[in-house]
Amino acid sequence: MVPAFSVMTERFASAAVLMSRVLGMPDYGFAKIGHPVSSATDAGLEAMARLAIEQGRSMLVRS
């Protein structure tokens, strides 16, 4: 198994939790970033990316 995580926006986080449970992986990790992404500025996208990397690193290190 390869350690991995997904990135979800806040709006779709509950759907991600539901799907991970339905697929039998209730502890599957995902980073949660702001919503929406499509209208974010470059600075906003960079901040979201940094947040996702920070959250992902934490998940992967404890795996």
Neighbour order of strands in the largest sheet? 1-2
Number of domains: 1
Strand-pairing-aware structural class: alpha+beta
Order of helices and strands: EHEH
Low-confidence segments: none
Estimated helix fraction: 40-55%
Shape: flat
Largest sheet: 2 strands, parallel
Count of beta strands:
2
Mean pLDDT: 93
Compute the number of helices.
2
Strand content: 5-15%
Q: How far is the first residue's CA from the last residue's CA?
A: 11 Å
Report the C-alpha radius of gyration, rounded.
12 Å
Descriptive account of the structure:
The chain is of the alpha+beta class. It has one domain (6-62). The chain has two helices and two strands, in the order E-H-E-H. It has helices at 13-22, 42-62; strands spanning 6-9, 30-33. Strands 1-2 form a two-stranded parallel sheet. Strand 1 (6-9), helix 1 (13-22) and strand 2 (30-33) form a beta-alpha-beta unit. The N and C termini lie close together (11 Å).
